[in-house]
Amino acid sequence: MTRINYPDIRRDESVVDEYHGTKIADPYRWLEDPDSDEVQKFVEAQNNITIPFLEECKPREAIKTRLTELWNYAKYGCPFRRGDRYFYFKNTGLQNQSVLYMQRSLEEDGEVFLDPNTLSEDGTVAISTYAFSKNGEVFAYGLSGSGSDWITIHFKNVLTGENYPETLQKVKFTSLSWTHDNVGVFYGRYSDQEGKTDGSETTSNENQKLYYHRLGTEQSEDVLVVDFPENPKWRIGAEVSDCGNYLIVSPQQDCRDNLVFFADLSEPLKSGLKTKLTLTPVVTKFEADYIYVTNTGHLMYFRTSRDAPNYRIATIDFSKPISETSWQTVVPEHSKDVLDWTACVNGDVLVTCYIQDVKNTLQIRKLEDGSLIKDFTLEVGTIMGYSGRKEDSELFFQFASFLTPAKILYVDLKSESLEPKVVREVTLKGFNPSDFETTQVFYDSKDGTKIPMFIVHRKDLVKNGNNPCLLYGYGGFNISVQPTFSVTRIVLMQHMVVYLLLQIFVEEEYGESWHNGGRLLNKQNGFDDFQAAAQYLIDNQYTSSKKLAIQGASNGGLLVGACVNQRPDLFGAAIAQVGCSDYGCSDEKEHFDNLLKISPIHNVKLPEDSNGQYPSVLLLTADHDDRVVPLHSYKFIAEIQTKVGKSSQQENPLLIRIETKAGHGAGKPTAKIAIDHYHWLENSNAPNVLQFESAQNDLTQNFLKSCPQLNEVKSMLLSVSNRCHVSCPTEDVTTGRFYFFMNSPDENCDSIYVKEGLKGKPRLHLSPKDIPETNGKAVFRMYSLSWHGETLAYAYGTLTSTMQKIRFRETKTGKDYSEVLTNVFYSDISWTHDNKGIIYSTYLNSKKNEVGHLAVVFHRLGTKQIDDLIFVEFLDSPYLTLQAQISDCGELLFVYANEKGINQHCNFLYGDLKGVAKNNYETTPYLFHLLEGNGLEIQFITRIHGATYFRTNCRAPKFRIVRTYLLKGTKLTKGFWETIISEHSTRLLDWAVCVNKHYLLVCYVEEAAHKLQLHKLQDGSLLHKYSLPLGTITEYSGGSQNSRFFFTFSSFLIPDCIRYIQVPKHSPKRFRNALHLMFKANAKKMKYFNRDLIKIVDSSDCCLKQRFCVSPTDGADIPIFLIHKKGLKLNKQSPCIMYGQGCFGVQIMPSFCVAKLAFVKCFNGLIAIVGTRGGGEYGEEWYRGGTCQNKQQTYNDFIAASEYLIKLGYTSPSKLIIEGQQFGGNLAAACLVQRPDLYGAVIIHNGLLDLLRYHLLQESQSYLSEFGDPNIFANFENLRKISPLHNVLNENTFLKIPAVMTIVDKENGLAHPSNSYKFIAELQFNLASKSTKKNPFLLWTHRHASSGQGEHSNNYPATQYQLIFPNTNPLFAAD
């Protein structure tokens, strides 16, 4: 084994603490600051050693494949009844978090109630605690992020599925307990906590307080009901009694023993519970555990270890004076078995669960006297969970063992038999429990104590001392480690690994006395037990020291660390997960002396034997673990690498792997890591990356210069593209002016122009050069006119930034207002109807490299941005797109919040703006939920006479138009929507606009082309269908206040032209006749706005056709647009450019492209545009058929279209070029590596090519809904198969790789440049000298452009097509 060169870790010898006269050095104190740059570099340096080492493990792939097969099985939790519904948790197999389902009966299928996997991009948000109200109508739940113990409490309406607006913060280590009037909930919070609460803080938490939260109010209104200021370390547990009249308060100081107080809730609840509660003490000394079970009136039942180390059930009467003699035993302590838990079910039944020799037993008893009713017969195993309350007549429990996946059993307590029935049982494919056996042995520890140990292995195991063995132990905090099922263990055992589960001192297997035998001053006993177990296994020929691996987590990490220090010769490998290796220093000298002897960090030493060394060590920790903070593992690995790893006699690796965005275990997603040889290319401004860019650009430029007709091609493209670009105008109805964007051929970016009436001449109103701080490099993003037309608000940015600014200009004088609004990100600008200001969205609290959080704010014209009024903010959603819109009547505000991520969770809200305007915008509107869900969309159309019209896909995947009456406080229900235009069976309703108050212009997509229709607003009836050629409406303008509707129309053969429709005014008296005449005269005519501004390209010798090829996988028809010159011969000689997209439900619609038309006209070429799955050509089902796990279907469709064109003679492989941008670049690259034999050249613009790391780079977070989260195991496996970067080297690409050119916009925020850099580096390094076809692999980087924006019109079109023209370039070899 090659020795590892460990990083040099700084030791600060000046840090010394003194305890009881003993000086203790702490040279790694600096590792306690998890946010410091030095610690971050330490983490990176350690992972850079560990990850490559683990990746080189030869059996890794086989183990991973087998784990995937076995792990992918459904896992269920016990059903539990709340109200009139059942709920249960389910994980389909490889989900990061289990999903909460709801069902009305046990027989029907459950529906998703809450899916935590949709609440974060990486699956690290988990449900940590929850509680239903007594009537089952409100669900309170706590969410934790990245494995932290800190939670945020939310409230969800069970009936409507809507969340209440309030959240509860600074919450940790708490239960939730509802009052029985369903009004509020008790919870504990650290209200005095300062600084971070994300799990990475290292300070201890103090002064937990118990609060009462009333549903529907802000957290600031919560009532402090219980606190213990004189005892800041206490954690406060609280539970409302089964009768609802008492609050049981149970303070706890350590991990065991608690106090008991109670408060009578009868009177406080009548008065609204507005003050602190009066507590009556029951137990005032930390000397035992007291767990509330139930009560009958004033008689309270507790499970307690008071005078019973193995626990008993005792009662105490709260109505009588409390004394030491008040406790009465109902179920006495068992002499040997430990009472693990108990519950009261069906009114008067006690369920008791014991631990008997480390396995569970289950009984039913009478509540009144504890007498036994039934003892269930269970195999050796563990009851993993149960459900059943006093008001329930059903008991559910979940049972598992080493060889049995969890099964759920049901007991009907009203039946006579009381026999458990299996209601759910799972099996694993490829796993036969009969191949294995479980044995329980008892061995002697160092002091002669009999220690139990389970041994699990294959039946054909031969005890020859040569078997790999994994020994696991915990040994702490009175926690029992019992037989449970583990896929990981099964896989290991199938490879002849012996698994041992050891029950050592400090656990709960034999009660309190057993626990005390291995804690505090007796801690060494636990380590002795563990080492004795190892010796037993070696002596009995199960294994040998070199093949014995030990493992422990949390407190078990301490166990492993201590044993490695004390007996390094006994073990071959050691794994310590989130270990607490520095156990702290007691204030008592006796404890300090003991801890100093056993603390792993303080006892690292090189073995005295010159041939001795530490076993292989792997520490596993997480940067957000706030229960056992990672500094323990950081310091321990630093110490052993420094003291042991640097020695020549240490050959075994000493490693640590540090998970980011993970904690102590809860909420941790299934994450995978792959070797990334080109990771350094992600730092796009590093000197070595800049050098890489320059070298690639030089190579590409020299190659392109060799093209004999380069200048001719470039000149031709520029001459054809020499035309103005004009946007749809905005009509100012008060002045008759029209505002629009326009740029001439010699301008880089748009300017804002104005026309006086339709026949006026355009004049420049505002140029990017007029914005002083941008030095003329600004790019306009949008503009918005105030309602009276006197003020223009305009948003602008730079070529290389997605952030925007907003300024204001007087339209009459051309003077700008002084204020500038910053940190604007893709925001709409919506004017209030009184013209006092705008509503927009912005990032608040933005800092360098941190964008802050999004908010919708009101800006009053003429004031500073700092004075803007916050209407709504989203503190917990960093990946959010946010838009705000004021209704055309000015009365309502609509907020559209869309969380980018795996399910695109959408939240649509509305509020009354009229009242806010009356208060002069000094108050904020209360926002009501209009619609919420995954993948839902809604578009406001108009509001007239109290009716509000929307376009939505709610219960209509192809969209419909609905009407509703939004009243304050109204909750939308299924019947609340009135359909005005129904969903079409085949057409997709793309958008709709209200024009002239009474009409709807509706645009459909049919066979990938737009169709425009006029409808009556009142009832949706069709009035007219407009005749449009095959093409696309790329933009439009107009509204309910306008009589003219403008739209830009484009087709493959028709350049952009702006048309408008004159819509007549409504005539109530003679509606039908007048309507017919006016439409005949006006509405059916479409006039041109910009015919005199554009140069029409003659395309009369070209034709446009639509063809369909059949997908070989499922027989679906794949649409293909073909553009070519008339009379094209199908002789396989035509060069062809094939383009596709297949992402985000975006339709590839017919649009004009100068370069593509030039290719057709000048080279007799063919353009093929393919509509694959994943696009939006045919609605939701078509889109979903090409996303996430179905992404390969997109590539299959594109490949099928390629084969179709070749088969019919349109082209041949050597003449077929495929091209794509961003997601289309991913499509082109994936097809390149899968079928390189089909193509002659591939052009990739800003492609998304590294699908294992795309989610970590820039705005690529938003693509999770399209490709899936690589942190989820199933997604990772799929992405690894289709990621172009990770599939360059395969049996296909070695044979005949086509020419490749990747074009990169350096400042592109949508697909990080490293995608292309890595891809081209992989091609050049691995295939340039190996491919049988000598084609070039080229990269061209535009260093000052973003997604193509801002590139001078004289450069960009020519650059991107120099590669593809045949007969001008040596890229094209003969067939």
UniProtKB/TrEMBL annotation:
<keyword id="KW-0378">Hydrolase</keyword>
<keyword id="KW-0645">Protease</keyword>
<dbReference type="GO" id="GO:0006508">
    <property type="term" value="P:proteolysis"/>
</dbReference>
<dbReference type="InterPro" id="IPR051167">
    <property type="entry name" value="Prolyl_oligopep/macrocyclase"/>
</dbReference>
<dbReference type="InterPro" id="IPR002470">
    <property type="entry name" value="Peptidase_S9A"/>
</dbReference>
<feature type="domain" description="Peptidase S9 prolyl oligopeptidase catalytic">
    <location>
        <begin position="1163"/>
        <end position="1346"/>
    </location>
</feature>
<dbReference type="InterPro" id="IPR002471">
    <property type="entry name" value="Pept_S9_AS"/>
</dbReference>
<dbReference type="Pfam" id="PF00326">
    <property type="entry name" value="Peptidase_S9"/>
</dbReference>
<dbReference type="GO" id="GO:0005829">
    <property type="term" value="C:cytosol"/>
</dbReference>
<dbReference type="GO" id="GO:0004252">
    <property type="term" value="F:serine-type endopeptidase activity"/>
</dbReference>
<comment type="similarity">
    <text>Belongs to the peptidase S9A family.</text>
</comment>
<keyword id="KW-0720">Serine protease</keyword>
<feature type="domain" description="Peptidase S9A N-terminal">
    <location>
        <begin position="7"/>
        <end position="423"/>
    </location>
</feature>
<feature type="domain" description="Peptidase S9A N-terminal">
    <location>
        <begin position="674"/>
        <end position="1063"/>
    </location>
</feature>
<dbReference type="InterPro" id="IPR001375">
    <property type="entry name" value="Peptidase_S9_cat"/>
</dbReference>
<dbReference type="InterPro" id="IPR023302">
    <property type="entry name" value="Pept_S9A_N"/>
</dbReference>
<keyword id="KW-0963">Cytoplasm</keyword>
<keyword id="KW-0007">Acetylation</keyword>
<protein>
    <recommendedName>
        <fullName>Prolyl endopeptidase</fullName>
        <ecNumber>3.4.21.26</ecNumber>
    </recommendedName>
</protein>
<dbReference type="InterPro" id="IPR029058">
    <property type="entry name" value="AB_hydrolase_fold"/>
</dbReference>
<dbReference type="GO" id="GO:0070012">
    <property type="term" value="F:oligopeptidase activity"/>
</dbReference>
<dbReference type="Pfam" id="PF02897">
    <property type="entry name" value="Peptidase_S9_N"/>
</dbReference>
